[in-house]
Amino acid sequence: MNEVEGLSNQECERLKERIETLEKELGQKNVAVAALERANRQLEDKIRASEATEAPAPLTELEETLKRLVFRVAMILQAEKCVFMLFDKDSGDLVAAKPAFGLADEEVRSFRVRATQGVSGEVFREQKPVILYDAMNDPRTVKEKVGLLNIMNGLCVPLVIEKRDEDTNRVLESKTIGVLHVFNKRDGNVFIQEDVNLLTRLSKNAASVIASAQMYREILEEKEELESIIESVYAGLVMINKSGKVMQMNASARSMLGINDPEVVGKAYQDIVNYEPVLDILKTSLDESTEVAEEVSISLREDEEKIYQVQSALVRGDDQQPIGVVAIFNDITEIRSIDRMKTAFVSTVSHELRTPLTSIKGFISTLLQDEDGTFYDFDMKREFYTIIDTECDRLTRLISDLLNVSRIEAGRALDLNPKPVTLTTLIEKVVSVQKSYTNKHELVIDIQSELPTIVADEDKVDQILTNLTNNAIKYSPEGGKVTISATRYGERVRMCVSDQGMGIPKEHLPKVFDRFHRVDNRDTRRVGGTGIGLYLVKHLVEAHGGKIWVDSEVGKGSKFIFELPKCPPQFEAEQEQMIGAGQHSGHMQPGMAPPMGSVNN
Predict the structure, then answer these.
(1) Would you call the peptide bond into 99 cis, given omega within 30 degrees of 0 as the criterion?
(2) Among residues 226, 389, 422, 575, which is most buried (max CB within 10 A)?
(3) DSSP per residue over 428-461, as a string?
(4) Coil vs helix vs strand at 235
């Protein structure tokens, strides 16, 4: 029989034509699928090749491959839109990714849904395809916002990566990475089971391509992130491969080595590093496959020398064989400078301690030799005792300074014992004491206005003024005028100790309040000093909530200016409570400061 049972000849002819058309379309689709499979294999080959070389293929090439993939899928399925969604394990969302076909970038960015919701979540969780015949009225698509994306119908299949046994082709492991969507069948049609079978087959290759591109993108992002971290770290880093080519050199290393060219990767290290000690370290590490740790000095300018701690280490591959060397540069200039200052400080302190002790020992020995008390008269003995007393005070101040510095270094705040302080009286007392130490200087008090009574630690303020006045005398060895001035400055008191001495070089001004810092020249060595006085003064001023600075010029003297508040901030609440208690009882308590509104305004 030439006729199919129940069908007329004409109907059979139409059926044959329809079958021939479908076979032709299927053949075309098989050709397209084969083309996708070839593209997938080519992409995998490129990725493997890029992993084996130092210069991977650019990410744009992979993006173009993905773009062609979604376009071909859309064409084969005769869909107006095609997009894939990947599972984000951090957020738990299925997120649409570029490139997409038929969707604008903004639409792709807005297309995301929880993996537990929507038709996308259903396909992802159950790993089964779903046909949407009427997307607008399907209750599962509410979360996908199909109306905003102008989606009428669609087909969704899971993107599954399968790991198979090479011999038996048996699936050993499968992992769902997302879903693949095609939307809006052309010519007003809907997707059918044949489309499901075809897209399911396409999705296997698509999943492999997408996963490979995603993995490659993540590797590049991690590489860029690592390079950014390396580029931004404070320590210098230089990485060199076995052939002596620079693999990585961050900004800190380029700055430390005086290299202005940022494009150093791929160049021989001997061509860009100009310092022999550094070259020797890198050469030794490469040639001998050993680690080296040394300190090197580098002078980028005549007036500046930097000291770096250079530590090299071997970089090993997966087989634990050396593939290169990495060298880390740490700037230890400041550390070595402090070490030198500490050494000088110990030497200076030893001298400063020995000098008064020598005087005390000498005068005590002299007095002891006068056994019957007839050799020296009363006035001579009193002079000896006065010198001994003065030198003992000098020792006490030095030891007190050392203890305070130790307290500051240990992070413990300086203890303050606040009480009302009359600054005029205190300044006169300090000047009176300092006058006994010199006959070459004129000490002048210049109080420009009536000073308020402040709340402060009187001994600490005395120490500040004494130290600054003593420094002014010490560093103007030829004599001259030393002026201690004070004036009211808003809600603060500003004081200044000025001299006509040797002054401070401009480059040392930012460091005069650093611990152990001393201007080292012939004149200052003759004067002596420990280098902790101004460091301590600064902390004493700041402990009161004040500030201090210096204005100086070589050969014209120095001015040390500091300001103190009427009451240290940490004691304001306490003072207000004491004032309130005193007013309530009708009289002031002993040692209590007067109310802030009534202090000698």
Answers:
(1) yes
(2) 575
(3) HHHHHHHHTT-SSEEEEEEE-SPPPPEEE-HHHH
(4) coil
Tell me the per-residue pLDDT of 462-506, one tens digit each, with 9 for 90 and over: 989 988 998 898 888 888 899 999 999 888 999 999 998 888 888
8-state DSSP, 588: P
Residue 25 CB neighbours (<10 A): 13
Residue 120 near residue 181, CB atoms below 8 Å: yes
Cβ burial, residue 293 (10 Å; 0-12/13-18/19+): exposed
Q: Are strands 480-489 and 441-447 parallel, antiparallel or unpaired?
A: parallel
* Whether the model pTM is above 0.85: no
430 within 8 A of 472, measured Cβ to Cβ? no
Q: What is the pLDDT of residues 313-325, one digit of tens each?
A: 888 877 778 788 8
Mark out the alpha helices in 323-422 (DSSP H runs). 333-369, 378-409
Going by C-alpha positions, the residue among 501, 489, 497 that lies closest to residue 446 is 497
CB 101, CB 82: distance < 8 Å: yes
Q: Token pair of 140, please?
A: 């599962």
Helix, strand or coil, per DSSP, at residue 88: strand
Q: What is the pLDDT of residues 392-411, one digit of tens each?
A: 877 887 777 777 777 776 66
Residue 203 backbone dihedrals phi, psi, to 5 degrees = -65, -30
Ranges in the chain, pLDDT < 50 = 1-7, 33, 36, 39-40, 42-44, 46-57, 59, 524-525, 584-601
In angstroms, rounded to a whole number, what is the distance separating the alpha carbons of residues 425 and 421? 9
